[in-house]
User: Fold these one by one.
Assistant:
Number 1:
Amino acid sequence: MPYSIQFSKGQTDYYLKSSFLDLPKIAPLAHAVFLIDSNVYELYKDLFIHHTVLIIDAGEQHKSLSTIHELTLRLLDLNAHKSTFLIGVGGGVVLDITGFLASVFMRGVSFGFVPTTILAMVDASIGGKNGVNIGLNKNMLGTINQPKFILFDTLFLQTLPNCKWSDGFAEVIKYACIGNSALYHQLANNNLVNFQSDSLLLQNIIEQCVQQKNKIVLEDEFEKNLRKTLNFGHTAGHAFETLYHLPHGQAVTFGMIVALIASEQQLSLSKQIRTDFVNVLNKYQLAHLFDFEVRAVLEILKHDKKRNGETIDFILLKSIGDAVIFPLEFDAIQSALQIFADEYKS
Ligand SMILES: NC(=O)c1ccc[n+]([C@@H]2O[C@H](COP(=O)([O-])OP(=O)(O)OC[C@H]3O[C@@H](n4cnc5c(N)ncnc54)[C@H](O)[C@@H]3O)[C@@H](O)[C@H]2O)c1
C-alpha cells in the first residue's frame, strides 16, 4: 500500500520499498510514455521491451529547453494526447525534465517518477519542483507540480557508481543537519558501505528523508519560508557547482561547510560541530578540501535569485537538527568563504 499526500494540485502516492515489477498495478501503462536516462536504459532495457520509450541523453547539459523541444516533437510523432501519461525513469535530471515537460505539454498531462539515484530518491523526486537550465542559470524555467506516483526500487542502485552514492548522501546529511539529529547520529555511526550492503538500512533512511521533505513541503509548498531550509548548503554550493563543474552533492557539501562557518560567526555554533561534520563527510567519501577563488564565488552569489539588496538568505544552524533562515550580509559571506578557503586548502 502506498502512503499518499494531498497537495494543492492533487495527490501523490509514494510506493516506498517497492519493485519496478509492481508498475502495472500503479500506472496506466496502456497510454504511458517512458522518458528514460540513456545510461539507465542501456543497463535495464529488458524492463522496457513492451513499452513506448523516449531516451534522454544522460547529463546535466541536457536539462535544457532544446531537450524539451525535441521531446515535444517526438511526443507529437507518437500522437500523444491529453491522456498520455509520462513516466520519468532516471536521476534528478530526467525527473526534472519529465516533470517540466508534463506540466507544459498540451497545458499539462499526468506523470509519475521512478527515481534511480539516491539523490533522486531522497530529494529530486519529492516536492514537485521541476525545471530546466538556461545557459549557466540552473533551474531558471520551471513549475511546481506534483507527480501522481513515485515508485522506489532500490535494486536500481546496484549499478549506481560509487561517486553518485556519495553525491546522494550529501543530501541525506543535509536533511539530518536541518531537522533530524537522530538521523545525523545514525549517519555518524555508519558509513557508505554499510548502506550499500544493507537494503533495509538504506530503505529506512530513504523513507526518513522522503517523509522529512514532504512534511516541509506540505507546510510550505510554494517556498515562502520553511521550505527554504532545504537550501542548507545550496547557496554557496550552487556557486561552486556552476564555477567549478562539481557534482551537485559535492558542491553542496562544500556549501554546508561554509554555512557551518557562518553559523559559528553569527549564532555561536561550536567549532567542534564542524570537526565532527568533516568526520561524517569522510564516512561517505565526500571531500572537504577544496581550492577555489573567493572573489569569483562572491561574483556568482551577487546574481543569486535569493539576493535581497545587501543580503542573501542563508540557512544556518543553531545546532544539529535546528536550522534557521538568516539574512547574511555580503561581508559576512565573504568572511565565511575566506575561512573555508584558508582552512580547507588541498
Ligand atoms: N527538483 C528538485 O527538487 C531537485 C532537487 C535536487 C536536485 N535536483 C536536480 O537533480 C539533478 C541531479 O540529479 P542526479 O544526481 O540524480 O543526477 P543525474 O540525473 O545526472 O544522474 C547521475 C548519473 O547517474 C546515472 N544513473 C542514474 N541512475 C543510474 C543507475 N541506477 N545506475 C547507473 N547509473 C545511473 C545517470 O545516467 C547520470 O550519469 C540536478 O539537475 C539537480 O538540479 C532537482
Number 2:
Amino acid sequence: LNPNQFQRRRVWSLTIRIWHWLLALAVCTAWGFGEFMDFATIQWHFYLGYSILALLVFRLLLGLWGPQAQRFSALPLGPGRIRTYLGSALSRTPGGEVGHNPLGSLSLIAMLLALLAQAGTGLFIESEDFFEYGPLADYVSESTIHFMGIWHHRIAKLLLFLVGMHLAAMVYYRLWKRENLLLPMITGWKWVKAGRNNEQQKK
Ligand code: HEM
Ligand code: HEM
C-alpha cells in the first residue's frame, strides 16, 4: 500500500466491535440450538433469542440517535456513492472506505431486518415436539402461531444465506481486492484512502 494514498485510521468504535462479535456469537448459537433442538436446549434457544432482540434494539437506537458515524442516515447509499462503488467493485484494488461500503450498508440493513423478523416471529410460536411456546403465543390465534412458525423456519434459511454472503464478501475482499476487512472489525483500525473524509469518519 502506498502510504501517500492510504492512511491507518480508527473506523469502528469499541461499542460496534463488541456489539458485532456478541451478535455473531449469539446468532450462531441460537441458530444451532434451533436447528438441533431438544428438551434441554430449547430454553437456551429462547434466552439467546431475547439477547439478540436486545442487541438489535440497541443497534436500532444507535442507528437512529447515536453518534453521527453510526447512524443509518450516514450509510453511503446515495446514487453517487453507489455508482462509484459499482465502478470499482471488480477492480483488484482495496476500496479503502472509512466505514461500510454501499454493499456492506445494504447487508447491514438486510441482516438487521431479517434478525428482527426472526426473533419477532419466535416470540409467537410453539414447538409441538418440546411442549414449549414463545411468551406471546398465548395472546394470538392458532393460525397466527402456525403462520409465525412457517416464517420462523423460512427466515432461518434466509439468515443462513445472508451470513454466508457476509462471509463470502470478506473472502472476496481479502483474496480479490486485497483488502482485509476482518482485522478492522477486531482492532478498529483500517487502511483508508487518504483524503476520504466522508460521513462515516471516526466511527
Ligand atoms: C451470524 C454471524 C454474523 C452476523 C449476524 C453479522 C452481522 C454483521 C453486521 C450487522 C455488521 C454491520 C455492523 C454495523 O455497522 O453495526 C457486520 C459487519 C462486519 N462483519 Fe459480521 N456478522 C456475523 C459474522 C461475522 C464473521 C464470522 C465475520 C468474520 C469472519 C464477520 C466480519 C464482519 C466484518 C469484517 C464487518 C465489517 C464490514 C465492513 O467493512 O463493512 N462477521 N456484521
Ligand atoms: C434471531 C434469533 C433466532 C434464530 C436465529 C432462531 C433460529 C431458529 C431455527 C433455525 C429454528 C429451527 C427451525 C426449523 O427447523 O423449523 C428455530 C426453531 C424455534 N425457535 Fe427460533 N430463532 C430465533 C429466535 C427465537 C425466539 C426469540 C424464540 C422464542 C422466544 C424462538 C422460538 C423457537 C421455537 C419455539 C422453535 C421450534 C419451532 C418448532 O418446533 O417447529 N426462536 N429457531
